[in-house]
Design a protein that fits this description.
Blueprint: H1 5-19, E1 32-37, H2 52-67, E2 71-73, H3 83-92, H4 96-113, H5 129-143, E3 145-148, E4 153-156, H6 157-167, H7 185-190, H8 193-201, E5 206-216, E6 221-223, E7 228-229, E8 232-233, E9 241-250, H9 256-262, H10 270-280, E10 282-292, E11 298-303, E12 314-317, H11 323-327, H12 333-345, H13 348-353, E13 361-368, E14 375-380, E15 392-395, H14 401-410, H15 447-461, E16 464-470, E17 475-476, E18 489-492, E19 495-498, E20 531-533, E21 538-540, E22 550-552, H16 561-564, H17 567-570, H18 583-589, E23 592-597, H19 605-618, E24 628-633, E25 637-646, E26 652-654, E27 666-670, H20 683-689, E28 697-699, E29 708-712, H21 724-731, H22 733-742, E30 750-751, H23 757-769, E31 772-773, E32 776-777, H24 786-804, H25 808-824, H26 830-840, H27 845-854, E33 878-885, E34 888-896, H28 901-910, H29 912-918, E35 925-929, E36 933-937
Parallel strand pairs: 1-2, 1-23, 12-14, 23-24, 25-30, 26-28, 33-36
Antiparallel strand pairs: 3-4, 5-6, 5-9, 7-8, 9-17, 10-11, 10-13, 10-16, 12-15, 13-14, 18-19, 20-21, 20-22, 25-26, 25-27, 25-29, 31-32, 33-34, 35-36
This protein binds one RNA strand of 88 nucleotides through α10, β11, β15, α14 and β30.
RNA sequence: GCUCGGAUGGUGGAAUUGGUAGACACGUUGGACUUAAAAUCCAAUGACCAUUGCGGUCGUGCGGGUUCAAGUCCCGCUCCGAGUACCA
C-alpha cells in the first residue's frame, strides 16, 4: 500500500473544512500576524501550476507562524470585476455575475485541493454589493475632501467652503486643477451656486473634468497609462488614440511626495520601490515665465536646468496647448493649424515610432528673455507633451539633445554656454562637469552654483521660482464598462451630486445589452431610466419620471483597481454590514504584516492602494499610513512550449534531431501534454488532438519523434499549460507544494518541468518509510543516539532560518538530507520523528497531519508549538580542518575543537605532510579561522 | 537612451556574505533484487591528464586588479532579463 496520498489528503481536507480549523479570531491573547496574497481574478481558464506558487509560499509561512504562537489571519478572495466576464457577456448574453460565479466555484475547488489554510469565512468578492458598497463609500469620501498643502493632508470640503466665505482662495495653499482663477471672499459669496460647485470640483480629490484620454475604440473604453503597452492596449493589443471626454479622475498627484517618502519606511523589494520612484518621477528645477511680445500672456515653462537660461534660443509649446491659438501670428495660422490637425491624427504609437524625427512649426511670435531682453522665437512641436510640466519648454539646444536635434532640423541658431566644450556634433548634457560660460552673471559658475543664483534672481524679478515637478499624473477613474462598480453620483444640471452612505450600495442595473449604446453612452445607458429619486432615495428603473426629484445617474463605472485598493481591510471584518471595518477588528489587525504578489502590479494596484491608504489615514479611518509592512514578489512559473516542424506545403513533420536548418521550416506549437519527459511526442495522440494532424506523416529519428522546446509564459493559447489538478491526482498536493518550492527561489521566474517532480515525491515516500515498513508501524520508543539528535537539531536550525528568509527551496533540500541520514542511521525513534513531523507540516500538511495522528496525538498539529533547537546537540568536539599553504588546499587534519591557536599550530607542524610542504622554510604567517581553515603562508 | 536585476556542470539550483565551489534534486551510466517489468536500494557523474597506486592541472560570462585566500570585493567590457521612455 505504502504512501496513499489520495486518501490521506481527502481525509484531512474534509477534516479541516468540517472543523473550520483555519478560522481566525478577532479576539486573542496571542500576537497577531496578517499574511495575505494578492487575490486572483477568476478567469474562465482556471488555475495552472504557475498560479499557486505564491499561495504555497504564503501558506507555508502562515502555518509556520501558527506554530510560532501567532494568531494568523490568512484570507483569500476574488477580484471579481473585470473585462473577460463582460466580453463573454457581449458574446453570449450570459450575465457577468453568472460567469463570475461559475469561475469562482472552479477556482475554489482547485484551491481547496492544495490544502491551503485560508480562512474562507472572510472571503471577499469585489463584485458583491456588500463589498462594493464600501468601495463606493470611499469614492464619496474622496469627493468630499481636498488636499491642503499647509497641513499636508486631506481635509473636508466643508472647511474649504468656510474659508472661501471668509477669505476667498488667494491665501489658500491647496492642490487643485489647472486654470482656477483667484477670487476674494466677496466674489465667492456673489457666485451663483453652480459656479461655486464648479470651483469646488477643481479641489475635490476625485473630480470630473474634460480630459484628454487614451481611447481604445475596439474595447469601447478609456485606458489608464499602465493599461497601455507600447502604444497598444494591454488587453488585446488594439490601437489607442487620444480623445477628449468628461471623466472622473483621482488626484493622486496630491500624494506624490508622501508616496515617495513612504517607500523608505516599508520593507518592499528594492527593485519594486525603484519602479514606483521612477513612476512618480520627481524632478527638481524651476518655473520660468517668459513675457510674450505684444501680448498680455506669459509662457510658463518648467526646466531642470535653470542654469542654462542664457542658452535659450527658442521656445517650444505642445500643439494641444490652448495658448497656441492666441499667440499664433496671422501669417502663420495656416501652417500651425495644419500641424495641429496632423498631430491629432497620429496615434500614440506612430508618435512613439518616430521619435528620431523632429517635427514642428514656427508660430510667428516671440518671447522676451527675462535677463538679456533678446527676442526668442516660439515654435510648436509634438516632442513636447501637453500633460507634463506646463506643456512648454525653454529650448536650450547646446544642453539638451532633443532641443539640439530640433534646432539642427529647422536651422535655429545654437548658442554655446559651456566652457571648453564642443557642441559641433551633439548637445553637452553632463551637468556635473559643467562650467557656465557666455551667460552674463552666471559665467564661470558650476551647475549647482548657477542654479541657485539664477533661481534667486528669477524670484527677485518675479519671473520665475524654484519648483518641484512630478511625472505622476492624476488617475482617470471612469470606465465605459458594465461589469464594474457603479459610481454613486447623479447629475443635476450637468453638475455631479453625491449619494450618501445610507443610499449605498448603488447596485448595478440589469441591462439587455452589454455594449455601449447607439448614442455612444456607456453600457449602463442601456438600462431603462437608470436614475435617482432624491425624495424616496431609491433608484428609479423603468418607472415614470417625476422631473422634480428624479435625476440621471452616472453611467460610467469604476476601473479594475478600485476594489483592490482597499480589500485587505475588508478581510479584517468581512461580515460587518454596519461599517467598513469594526473598530475592534481594526485595532487588533491594524495592517498587513506580509503581502505576497507579482511585481506586475508595481505601478498599478500597489501604487493606487498606497494612495487610498494615505487618504484614509488622513481621515483617521485606518491606523497606519502604509498598509503592507513587508512585501515579497513571487516570480512567475513559465511554461515550456513544445514545437514540431512542418516541411512547407506538406503534411510531413520532422523530428527535432533531424532538423539541420530551420530555414523554410514552419514551427507549430503542440500540446505539451502529448510530450513525455524526454521530449518524445505521442504521435498517435497528436493525430487525435486536432483534425489537421489526422493524416500527418512523421519523420522519426531512431524510432522516436522529438519536439523542440521554448520557455514562454504559460497560457492556454500556447498549449503549454500544466494543470495542477492532474499533478495532484498523480502525485498528491503535498508533492506539488514541495516541488513548487523546490523549483527555485520564490522571487525568481522559472520554467515548469514536470520531470523533476519524482525527486520530491520520492522524498515523501522515503519519509513515509521512516514510519511504516510493509504497512507495519515501526516507530520505536527508544532513546535516540547523539548522531540522530544532531541530525534533527541541525535540520530544525536550518529549516527555521530558511523559512524566516523565505528560502523555501533550500528548506526542502534540508528535509531531504535529514531523511536520507535518518534512513541510513535506521532511526525510527519517536523522539526524533515527532518534532520532524511538526517541522515538515507547513510544507506537506496532509501527510504531516496523518502521521501526527498515527503518533497518537488527539489534536491537530496546526497550533502545536514549533520545535526548538537545542544547540548543545550541535556542538562537535573535533573537526577536520583543511590545511592550506599560500591559499592552496593540501590536506585535512582532524583536531579537537577545544584546542587553542598555539596548540593547533603545534599539531599542524607535527604532521609529516606539513614538513614536506614547508621544506625547511619557517611559516611567515598563520591564518586560523575558527572552525574553518588553517592557512600557512611561507 | 535611462533605471534595476542577472550570468555557477547536461538541467533546476546550493555556497554560513572573503575561507575545501558545485549541497540537494533531475538526467545519464553501471550494479543489486526480480522469470520479467514496476518499485526500491547501492555506486559513479564539472572538464582534462593519470588511473597497479592513494594524484595532478584547469575551472563560477570576458579582461584586469586587491588579498595568504575571490563565485563573493574594486575597475573596464560582453551578453541576457525586467521596468520605463521625446518627462524638458
Amino acid at each position: 500500500m505504502g504512501y496513499d496520498f489520495n486518501s490521506i489528503e481527502q481525509k484531512w481536507r474534509a477534516y479541516w473544512a468540517k472543523n473550520q480549523t483555519f478560522k481566525a479570531d478577532n479576539h486573542s491573547e496571542k500576537p497577531k500576524y496578517y499574511i495575505m496574497d494578492m487575490f486572483p481574478y477568476p478567469s474562465g481558464a482556471g488555475l495552472h501550476v504557475g498560479h499557486p506558487l505564491g499561495y504555497i509560499a504564503s501558506d507555508i509561512f502562515a502555518r509556520y507562524k501558527r506554530h510560532q504562537g501567532f494568531n494568523v489571519l490568512h484570507p483569500q478572495g476574488y477580484d471579481s470585476f473585470g473585462l473577460p466576464a463582460e466580453q463573454y457577456a457581449i458574446q453570449t448574453g450570459q450575465h457577468p455575475a453568472k460567469t463570475t460565479q461559475e469561475n469562482i466555484a472552479r477556482y475554489r475547488d482547485q484551491l481547496d485541493q492544495m490544502g491551503f489554510s485560508f480562512d474562507w469565512s472572510r472571503e471577499v468578492r469585489t463584485s458583491n454589493p456588500d463589498f462594493y458598497k464600501w468601495t463606493q463609500w470611499i469614492f464619496l469620501l474622496l469627493f468630499d475632501h481636498y488636499y491642503c498643502n499647509d497641513e499636508d493632508k486631506a481635509l473636508p470640503i466643508s472647511h474649504l467652503v468656510l474659508r472661501f466665505e471668509k477669505e476667498g482662495n488667494t491665501t489658500l495653499n491647496a492642490v487643485c486643477s489647472a486654470g482656477i482663477e483667484s477670487f476674494s471672499a466677496a466674489e465667492w459669496n456673489a457666485f451663483i451656486e453652480s459656479k461655486k460647485e464648479e470651483i469646488l470640483l477643481g479641489y475635490r480629490l476625485t473630480y470630473l473634468s474634460e480630459t484628454e484620454v487614451n481611447w481604445c475604440a475596439e474595447l469601447g473604453t478609456v485606458l489608464a497609462n499602465d493599461e497601455i503597452i507600447n502604444g497598444v492596449s494591454e488587453r488585446g493589443g488594439y490601437p489607442v488614440t487620444k480623445k477628449k471626454m468628461k471623466q472622473w479622475s483621482m488626484r493622486i498627484g496630491a500624494y506624490a511626495e508622501r508616496l515617495l517618502k513612504g517607500l523608505d519606511e516599508i520593507d518592499w523589494p528594492e527593485s519594486l520601490k525603484e519602479m514606483q520612484r521612477n513612476w512618480i518621477g520627481k524632478s527638481i528645477g524651476a518655473k520660468v515665465f517668459f513675457q510674450i511680445e505684444g501680448h498680455e500672456e506669459k509662457i510658463e515653462v518648467f526646466t531642470t536646468r535653470p542654469d542654462t537660461l542664457f542658452g535659450v534660443t527658442f521656445m517650444t509649446l505642445a500643439p494641444e496647448l490652448e495658448l497656441v491659438q492666441k499667440i499664433t501670428h496671422p501669417d502663420h495660422k495656416d501652417d500651425v493649424e495644419a500641424y495641429i490637425s496632423e498631430t491629432k491624427q497620429r496615434t500614440q504609437r506612430e508618435r512613439m515610432a518616430d521619435v528620431k524625427n523632429s517635427t514642428g512649426v514656427f508660430t510667428g511670435s516671440y518671447v522676451i528673455h527675462p535677463f538679456d531682453g533678446s527676442r526668442i522665437p516660439i515654435w510648436i512641436g509634438d516632442y513636447v507633451l501637453a500633460d507634463y510640466g506646463t506643456g512648454a519648454v525653454m529650448a536650450v539646444p547646446c544642453g539638451d539633445q532633443r532641443d539640439y536635434d530640433f534646432a539642427k532640423h529647422f536651422d535655429i541658431p545654437i548658442k554655446n554656454i559651456f566652457k571648453g566644450v564642443s557642441i559641433e556634433k551633439e548637445a553637452f548634457t553632463d551637468k556635473e562637469n559643467t562650467t557656465i560660460d557666455n551667460s552674463d552673471f552666471l559665467t564661470g559658475l558650476s551647475y549647482q552654483e548657477a542654479t541657485d543664483k539664477v533661481i534667486e534672481a528669477l524670484e527677485e524679478k518675479e519671473c520665475g521660482t524654484g519648483t518641484i515637478n512630478y511625472r505622476l499624473r492624476d488617475a482617470i477613474f471612469s470606465r465605459q464598462r458594465y461589469w464594474g462598480e457603479p459610481i454613486p453620483m447623479y447629475y443635476n444640471e450637468q453638475m455631479p451630486q453625491p449619494l450618501t452612505l445610507e443610499d449605498l450600495p448603488l447596485e448595478l442595473p440589469e441591462v439587455e445589452n452589454y455594449l455601449p449604446t447607439s448614442e455612444g453612452a456607456p453600457p449602463l445607458g442601456n438600462a431603462e431610466k437608470w436614475a435617482w429619486d432624491t425624495v424616496s432615495k431609491k433608484v428609479v428603473v423603468n418607472e415614470k419620471i417625476d422631473h422634480q426629484t428624479v435625476y440621471p445617474l452616472e453611467l460610467n463605472t469604476m476601473p479594475g483597481w478600485a476594489g483592490s485598493s482597499w480589500y485587505f481591510y475588508r478581510y479584517m471584518d468581512a461580515q460587518n454590514s454596519d461599517v467598513f471595518v469594526g473598530k475592534q477588528a481594526m485595532e487588533y489587525w491594524r495592517e498587513v504584516d506580509l503581502y505576497l504578489g507579482g511585481s506586475e502590479h508595481a505601478t498599478g494596484h500597489l501604487l493606487y492602494s498606497r494612495f487610498w491608504q494615505k487618504f484614509l489615514f488622513d481621515l483617521g479611518i485606518v491606523p497606519v499610513e502604509e498598509y503592507a509592512k513587508k512585501l515579497i514578489n513571487q516570480g512567475m512559473i513559465l511554461g515550456t512550449s513544445a514545437f514540431i516542424y512542418r516541411k512547407p506545403g506538406t503534411k510531413t513533420y520532422v523530428s527535432k534531431d533531424l532538423l539541420e536548418t530551420e530555414e523554410g521550416i514552419e514551427p507549430i506549437r503542440v500540446d505539451v501534454n502529448l510530450v513525455n519527459a524526454s521530449d518524445e511526442l505521442d504521435t498517435e495522440g497528436l493525430r487525435k488532438w486536432q483534425s489537421q494532424f489526422e493524416t500527418a506523416e512523421f519523420e522519426m529519428h531512431e524510432g522516436v519523434f522529438k519536439v523542440g522546446r521554448e520557455v514562454e509564459k504559460m497560457s492556454k493559447s500556447k498549449y503549454n499549460v500544466v494543470n495542477p489538478d492532474e499533478i495532484c491526482n498523480q502525485y498528491g498536493a503535498d508533492t506539488l507544494r514541495m516541488f513548487e518550492m523546490f523549483l527555485g527561489p520564490v522571487e525568481q521566474a522559472k520554467p515548469w518541468n514536470t520531470a523533476g517532480i519524482s525527486g520530491v515525491h520520492n522524498f515523501l515516500k522515503k519519509y513515509w518509510r521512516l514510519f511504516f515498513k510493509d504497512d507495519q508501524w515501526i516507530v520505536t520508543e527508544e532513546k535516540p543516539g547523539k548522531k540522530e539528535l544532531k541530525v534533527l537539531h541541525e535540520t530544525i536550525k536550518k529549516v527555521t532560518t530558511d523559512i524566516e528568509n523565505f528560502s523555501f527551496n533550500t528548506c526542502v533540500s534540508s528535509f531531504m538530507i535529514c531523511v536520507n541520514e535518518l534512513t541510513s542511521l535506521n532511526c525510527h525513534s519517536r523522539e526524533i520523528l515527532s518534532p520532524l513531523t511538526l517541522l515538515l507540516s507547513p510544507f506537506a500538511p496532509h501527510l504531516a497531519e496523518e502521521i501526527w495522528q498515527k503518533l497518537g496525538n488527539t489534536s491537530t498539529l496546526i497550533n502545536q508549538p514549533y520545535p526548538e533547537v537545542n544547540e548543545s546537540y550541535l556542538i562537535e568536539d573535533s573537526k577536520n580542518y583543511p590545511v592550506s599553504f599560500n591559499g592552496k588546499m593540501r590536506f585535512t587534519i582532524p583536531l579537537a575543537l577545544s584546542l587553542e591557536q598555539e596548540e593547533i599550530k603545534k599539531a599542524v607542524l607535527d604532521d609529516a605532510r606539513t614538513a614536506e610542504y614547508l621544506q625547511g622554510k619557517a611559516p611567515k604567517k598563520w591564518i586560523i579561522v575558527p572552525n574553518k581553515i588553517i592557512n600557512i603562508v611561507y
